[in-house]
Write a structure and sequence with these properties.
8 helices, 208 residues, mainly alpha, 2 domains, Serine Threonine Protein Phosphatase 5, Tetratricopeptide repeat
Amino acid sequence: MQNDVVGAIEFMLQSLRLWNRAVDTLSRLTPPSAKTTKATDNLNPFESTPQELSSASDAQPTNRSSSFAQKRLMDGMEWRMIEGLLSTLLTLTQAYFTRGSSREAEYFAQQALDLAESVNAPTMAARALMRKGEIQLCQRQLDAGQDSLSKATELLQDLPGVDAADMRRLKGDWNCLNEQDHDARGLYEEASAMLAGLETMLASFDGR
């Protein structure tokens, strides 16, 4: 299992380097007035080894907007590249978290959050905050975890779907860690019911 995770991480890091080059190339081809916000800060994890990320993640996070008020339009090609980069960052977050490397996982979650905010992608930002909150809960940073989950809830705005179910699971985890087992059980049941509803809906589409 551990070897599989390590192999997946190496593959995703290579994928991340390619996505980063693609975004950089597209940025150079785009007129200055329409250039995309740079995907990452000066701490470039794409050219670093996993061991080096441990020290890189100690650095202060870059300044980022606290709202999505200023929306910047992107064409289809640009958005597909940004979406690919965001998905890769979130996959790396999960892979490092599965391996037990919380520091690296939180680093990539923060990278995904910074990028999602810079291109006005609230759903992706919410996913990054949820992963960050999960890591913080695992580290018993309960206040920080609650703050991350609260911000993610605001961005999701109670939209139905897998993200909403996952949010309830994470809030249930928070309640468990705070010895609020009854509340946690209710949230787990809600999450399970939401996933069952989604499965039923997808099955009906297949039937059609």
